Give the backbone structure.
Amino acid sequence: MLKALIVDDEIASLRTLELLIGKYEQHVDIIGVAHSANEGIEKVKQFDPDIVFLDIEMPGGSGFDFLEGCPHRNFDVIFITAYNNYAIKAFKYSAIDYLLKPIEVDELHQALEKIIKQRYSQFDGRNKYYALFENIKEIIPKKLVVSTDDKYECIDVSAIQLVEQTNSDTVIKLADNSQLKVANSFAELSSLLEERHFAPISNSQMINLAMVRKITNKPTNNVQLRNKQEVTVKPEYLGKLNEVLSKISK
């Protein structure tokens, strides 16, 4: 049985979450509730929860203030928020679980199942909270958290040269010529990185345009990256690639 603490100043939202967990999540026991960040910090000391359901915006201190007040975190966090706001982007880049109000039963179950799986496999999730505190300061997050076999890895987005799908694996290639096989899908990473001036060059590869050294078109359309690695651009992706590069260079 996992011990859960709810930190939320909205009584209706708090009661709804209590009812959903009580009815559908028999392996989770709500051991306390708090209505502010400071009260939540005290309840953590009192109850030592496994999971904290944490509202973002509360009077007297935000959910991030709560986390800063718990420097030695032995619990997982599921953020809850009424708005698809600025923080959601930071959550996605940092691999942080979150629920939008009104909370849907299926989304609650998926978030809990993910955490339970990681806890029982002794998955190391510390890096994602480091990345969250970095990313929440930025309009466009600079850290990307990816999942490997046994932990989260925190990567500087600017250090990524190439992301590719090879058979059933997704591989991230970095500027120092190292590479990382990750559990994230190629589609998932593509949706996150496209706003950071990454562009697809095929249906299984995308490149960091800041890493482009030059483009050649003989005998094929190739991109040479900063480490002098060359990758081929599929003809149907060439026009869009040139268009994006032109916008960046202006």
